[in-house]
Design a protein that fits this description.
This protein has about 325 residues and is an alpha/beta fold. It has helices spanning about 10-15, 20-35, 110-130, 145-155, 170-185, 195, 250-255, 265-270, 280-285, 310-325, and strands at about 5-10, 40-50, 55-65, 70-80, 90-95, 105-110, 135-140, 160-165, 190, 200-205, 225-230, 245-250, 280, 300-305, 330. The strands form two sheets. It has an eight-stranded parallel sheet with strand order 9-8-7-10-11-14-12-13.
């Protein structure tokens, strides 16, 4: 019997890799470019709800990235009350495979991967779609992905002002303290959505609402702003897309009609946002087949649901770096 060994990276190994901002952005950019060139397979995510969606659910993401010659499946739990038992709300496992034989090649604690690649997609979206002179960031939400949103956006824009808000005071204060330590700049903590978002150049909504609730007001969006809503339950007013010049998504297959959850779910299901009036998928813009921002006056919305291809690409980058540094374990599969 042929021996099969797989790479295993636990949370400590992933932390020890200490991926830099540009390493993360480069890996995710490569995955987006591959998607834009038609060199990926991205299956729409499926969900497992053990009891009720109020308690939480599992997302199962499946993808293949041809330039990397790797396929992968990630299972991530999303349980909003985990903070009550000292756990992150999102924990994940990524499995990588040889796409020609089906042989497993790696198992990775993908909790950090989920956070990093989400922040990277937000930041890469801003690189192509936000005004180059954006100086004020408003960010609602303090979950794991939020940290990487702010960190990677600030890496690209070096903001003059960063405002943050989340529902629980202790959460937003801890979030701001971590950002101040890591970014070396003052963070403005707000106790309401309006003070956080109104008039910001880049507006990020990563809330954890139990049901769709229009807390993000259309009137707060100034002309030329870049808006990124990606909460599981929509926080948008229905007329927000009326003032937007371009709507961009990460993958229409996951955003289109009949899929559950998401910031623009009602907009899609009621025909307000369609494949025909969609400006582009982000991969098309990164690959250069569709334009990004074309003028400072454009107000642009970017909705991303999360791409399996970016999980695969970032996981592959981690495995490669870990081998070079001698980190992780080799486990015998058979």
């Amino acid at each position: 019997m042929q021996e099969i060994w797989i790479d295993y990276l636990n949370a400590g190994d992933v932390a020890a890799l200490a991926l830099g901002n540009d390493e993360i952005l480069d890996a995710v950019s490569a995955a987006l470019r591959a998607q834009g060139l038609g060199e990926t397979v991205i299956e729409p995510r499926v969900h497992l709800v053990p009891e009720s969606s109020d308690k939480g659910h599992f997302n199962v993401l499946r993808g293949y990235v041809k330039p990397l010659d790797i396929a992968g499946v990630k299972v991530v739990g999303d349980f909003v009350d985990n903070y009550k038992v000292g756990l992150p709300s999102e924990m994940a496992v990524l499995n990588l495979f040889n796409p020609h034989t089906g042989m497993p090649t790696a198992i990775i604690d993908a909790t950090a991967i989920t956070d990093m690649r989400t922040g990277a997609v937000t930041a890469i979206g801003a690189r192509h779609l936000a005004r180059k002179d954006s100086k004020i960031l408003g960010h609602v939400g303090a979950r794991g992905t939020s940290y990487w949103n702010v960190r990677l956006l600030d890496h690209l824009f070096d903001f003059d002002e960063i405002r943050v808000h989340s529902r629980r005071p202790e959460s937003r204060e801890a979030f701001a303290a971590r950002l101040e330590q890591d970014l070396g700049k003052k963070i403005v903590v707000t106790d309401n959505w309006r003070d956080c978002l109104e008039g910001a150049d880049i507006m990020i909504e990563a809330s954890r609402l139990p049901e769709p609730t229009p807390l993000f007001r259309t009137e707060w969006v100034k002309k030329g702003a870049f808006v990124v809503p990606y909460g599981t339950m929509s926080a948008l007013e229905f007329d927000l897309t009326d003032i937007v010049d371009k709507v961009v998504v990460d993958d229409w297959g996951q955003c289109g009609p009949g899929r559950p959850y998401g910031a623009l779910r009602r907009h899609v299901d009621e025909g307000k946002v369609t494949r025909e009036n969609l400006h582009a998928e982000m991969g098309e813009i990164v690959a250069g087949s569709r334009p990004g921002r074309e003028s400072d006056g454009e107000t642009i919305l970017f909705w991303h649901r999360g791409l399996s291809s970016t999980d695969v690409a970032l996981g592959a980058a981690m495995v490669e770096k870990a081998r070079g540094l001698g980190l992780g374990q080799r486990l015998r599969f058979r």
